[in-house]
Here is the input.
Amino acid sequence: MKPPQHHRQHGLTLVEMMAALAVGLLVILAATALLHNARAAYQDIDDAGRVQETGRMALAHLADAVRQANHLPWETALAMEKPPTLAPGLRGIDNSRQANRLDPAQGNFSAGAGNGFNRSDILLLGFFGAPTHAAGSIVNCSGASVPAGPLEERARSWVIYYIAPGTGNEPELRCRYRGKSGAWTSDALARGVEAMQLRYAVDSDGDGRPDRWLDASAIDATLWQRVVLVRIALLVRGNQRRPSTPGAPARSYDLFLTDSGDAGYRFVEKEGDRRLRAVFQTTVLLRNAASIPPLPPSPP
Here is the structure.
């Protein structure tokens, strides 16, 4: 009797090969989708982290700068026979980006309004430095120490904060200041800051408590010396553009929550510009009082 012969299969049939290719293609597609989703998730997390870091850093920098406004080395001032008469070291301009037209040391606080980048405001801060033996230091927005005198208006250091487009038309928080040579220069502090709005609390009756919140346009030259609080709001955007849904309404961001519904505080994104955005807000108490003249006597 002849033993049975076992035939081994050599190669694949066409059907088997097509099935194997289909399974392999599905595996590749699944792996590609997972990789794409993982990459997109990483980019979203990185973008969100960058927005948070930029917003917190910019807000902290502005808050520290506002606390320096009106700083005066009092031991130097008290040693003078006549105290210096100085303009308030805090000013603001609504809806403007023309910081290059300002020269506070020369008394020029005027700039064109109505052309601010996303209706952003300008903030001007003036201060003198600290004595060399002081525990802390007073610096401008470049991080350089500023001189403590002479206590004259022309010698006071000023910094000007504003929003303007930078490289690639990317909006950024910028600071303008005078260097050691006396020439004005401007540095970018934070990219992606899309808008800045400011409001000011005024103690108009001198009782030590703020009476009302005002925009810069509602504060005259004499009332600036009675500002006691500054409220700062920033809108920061990310780098990644997200796909937009056709017909989806444009998203809006309120930099200040007010009952008036003032459109000047609201930012509406452009159609198709679905970037990650966040609003950052803080309120800063002025540490240094301006030279406030005595209040007139109350009527009998």
